[in-house]
Amino acid sequence: MDLPTLWFWIVAALFVGYFVLDGFDFGVGMSLPFLGRDDTDRRVLINTIGPVWDLNETWVIVAGAAIFAAFPEWYATLFSGFYLALLVILLALIVRGVSFEYRHQRPEQSWKRRFDLMITIGSALPALLWGVAFANIVQGVPLDADHNYIGGFFALLNPYALLGGFTTLLLFFTHGVFFVALKTDGEIRERARRLGVRVSTITVLVAATFLVWTVLAHGTLIAAAFAAVAAVALIGGAVANARGREGFAFTLMAVTIAAAVLTLFTSLFPVVMPASNDVANSLTIENASSSTYTLTIMSWTALVFLPLVLAYQGWTYWTFRKRVTRSHIEAAAH
């Protein structure tokens, strides 16, 4: 395997990590209006991700940096052509992060409700727009001979891309609801399980439609295999949740999201940015990559630091592995 190919799959692995980890963060944020019946409930929900949400977001920073360093042409085309959509994602992430920190700074319920709403919106928008962005990358966008995007913003909101957006929105929402059931106890846990039963049915239908469309229009045999894994894991997660097996449900949802992301990347390979108007204008791993020297330095750096990041994140999850309950929140208030 040559270095450009290696770094294509490293970028894929980084986005798998980001969507799996920040995906349930988004889902928990979106679940606030459905599972949080009072302020204590909402504090329980936020506390389930309190120790890890900011750590989970670092994966997208690393993924973006990896694209910038390993595939500068891809980075330039992607971040210029999708500038408005990516700016909305960035602003939503900022609003969400600020809301986590500011909602408890004043005692008024109206103050907290406003920040809870911003957490919900700041979770839903990225969940939707990441799917729209990746669906457009797989489908291809119009590029000129210099690899500049020549379409408009609304051209990105085509049926296939919107279906991709609703797929990631529902996958992350379901993933987050399963995580709430795993990390809480009592009535909230039961409400999360019931909500998971309802939403997973819709998620299966929407995700299956998107994956079938992807495989038929853009996929390969390997992409079809990953899509099949995603479908089986999603159905298995829904069944596990219905039976009260939260750990299995959450794990299988993580497998679903990972397999779905790999379906998209295997559908792309060896292209990183297809040109829908002229295949000659497409960006591939060869014409978009950095020099061999740059990729070599990056590979040694990743070999040293990536295991350290994984070890630290694993330690964090292990440290905060216990369930969060209303009694913990109520006791902390006194």
UniProtKB/TrEMBL annotation:
<dbReference type="GO" id="GO:0016682">
    <property type="term" value="F:oxidoreductase activity, acting on diphenols and related substances as donors, oxygen as acceptor"/>
</dbReference>
<dbReference type="GO" id="GO:0019646">
    <property type="term" value="P:aerobic electron transport chain"/>
</dbReference>
<feature type="transmembrane region" description="Helical">
    <location>
        <begin position="74"/>
        <end position="95"/>
    </location>
</feature>
<feature type="transmembrane region" description="Helical">
    <location>
        <begin position="247"/>
        <end position="273"/>
    </location>
</feature>
<dbReference type="Pfam" id="PF02322">
    <property type="entry name" value="Cyt_bd_oxida_II"/>
</dbReference>
<feature type="transmembrane region" description="Helical">
    <location>
        <begin position="293"/>
        <end position="318"/>
    </location>
</feature>
<feature type="transmembrane region" description="Helical">
    <location>
        <begin position="195"/>
        <end position="215"/>
    </location>
</feature>
<dbReference type="GO" id="GO:0005886">
    <property type="term" value="C:plasma membrane"/>
</dbReference>
<keyword id="KW-0813">Transport</keyword>
<feature type="transmembrane region" description="Helical">
    <location>
        <begin position="115"/>
        <end position="139"/>
    </location>
</feature>
<feature type="transmembrane region" description="Helical">
    <location>
        <begin position="221"/>
        <end position="240"/>
    </location>
</feature>
<feature type="transmembrane region" description="Helical">
    <location>
        <begin position="6"/>
        <end position="32"/>
    </location>
</feature>
<keyword id="KW-0349">Heme</keyword>
<dbReference type="GO" id="GO:0070069">
    <property type="term" value="C:cytochrome complex"/>
</dbReference>
<comment type="similarity">
    <text>Belongs to the cytochrome ubiquinol oxidase subunit 2 family.</text>
</comment>
<feature type="transmembrane region" description="Helical">
    <location>
        <begin position="159"/>
        <end position="183"/>
    </location>
</feature>
<keyword id="KW-1003">Cell membrane</keyword>
<protein>
    <submittedName>
        <fullName>Cytochrome d ubiquinol oxidase subunit II</fullName>
    </submittedName>
</protein>
<dbReference type="InterPro" id="IPR003317">
    <property type="entry name" value="Cyt-d_oxidase_su2"/>
</dbReference>
<dbReference type="GO" id="GO:0046872">
    <property type="term" value="F:metal ion binding"/>
</dbReference>
<keyword id="KW-0249">Electron transport</keyword>
<keyword id="KW-0472">Membrane</keyword>
<keyword id="KW-1133">Transmembrane helix</keyword>
<dbReference type="GO" id="GO:0009055">
    <property type="term" value="F:electron transfer activity"/>
</dbReference>
<keyword id="KW-0812">Transmembrane</keyword>
<keyword id="KW-0408">Iron</keyword>
<keyword id="KW-0479">Metal-binding</keyword>
